[in-house]
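Quick start: read one record
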Amino acid sequence: MSAATLQELPGGLEWLNAPAASLHELHGRPVVLAFVNAASAWCAQRLAELALWQARNPGRIQVLVVQVPRFDSERQGQRSLKLLRRQGLSFPVLLDADWAAWQRYGIQAWPTLLLVDADGRERERITGLGGDLERALFALCEGLPPPLEEDLRVAETMPEPRLALRFPAAVLATAERLFVADSGHHRILECSHGGRILRQFGLGTADLIDGPPDQAAFSRPQALALEREALYVADTGNHALRRINLLTGMVDTLCGNGRAGDPVEGPVAAHARTPLNRPLGLAALGNQVHIAGAGDNRIWSYDLGRGELLLRAGTGQLELRDGNARSMAAFAQPVALAAVQQQLYVCDALGSAVRSLQLRSELVQTLVGQGLWESGDADGPRASARLQHPQGIALSADAPLLWIADSGNGSLRTLRLGGGELATVTLPRRLHGPTGLSVAAGAVWIAETDAHGILRYDIATGELGDVPIGE
């Protein structure tokens, strides 16, 4: 196939974790330019597939991740890099803050892979999650000499600190305990309110293994829900719903088989578990665990009694659309859930929105959010209020108040239910990538994901303090 040499990368792109290089300098090595958005679940899935291929075929290709911001906060290099590091990414990353590379190469959607051969010519481009990635990558390397050392190494100028937690994604508080999804360490912790670690569930290495606490394994767990003596885990890296028996410590898998796929309604067979697609949010209500599927933009329910999966809401399209839950409503990457009585509240990350799902009437409504490309930092009436890439929600037990982790704005927000306004909580400092929230014991507990910590906000006094997690 004859093709022209690909144009050089635009000047001025910020290299976030590697020394600057050019396509000319990489001549002789196949290159994959991966145009992604760090906030996108679909991009995360494509990057995970690339990382898996490269781990099996080291040194064959050079991957360059071109991060193109969707939200204003992602124009800051450190914020974009943190979002990608949460996924365990180890590729060199360039920040295309002004979409210069996007325009130069005629990119039209996230994710797009530009496959460039050893002679610098574009061989193929794969848009979305379609295409035969495995075939395309092997074809790109065909006829080349044996694997070499990588030409471009990641050089972390500001590596993440070595702390007890690494990118904790969720916190769940009870009257006496804290449960933490320590996502970067692939484990679940049970702690006292003071932060002392009482129990660890999971080996601490990414895998899908059931069994006792010291033998079980998770992969980037992202959400928690508690129902009686069972702690439910959105095991995002494994695309699975897991359960921890808090009496025995045993871990088992209820749904999901380790790979992203289209969930199927009906009974979930133990020997052939139906797949899930990037579960990111959970809420337990009655005898059901509700699941926010960020990868398929749907809300699912797992019936604990019958072992069945039920589609609750979402057409699967990435949109912000209200109406009948199953036939019309659409979500834009749902990432967190909160439940009360017969109502689910949904944190819609890419829509910068909070939605409600009435389980009885099967009606979805938008409480805050104006559209897929409308975000901001405005308080006030719902029609004019704005969020930016929210990541977590939690309900107050004794007040009609919804707490929101407004990750893009680094703030804690509140929405008074029943027609009330959106407000920003006054804090002594900006939050760094807050994700998970929980309300208990007079406090809002915050997983400050990008700072690798857990915070306690005292509702009565307004005090904000660190919870020192450790032995």
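The longest helix spans residues 41-56.
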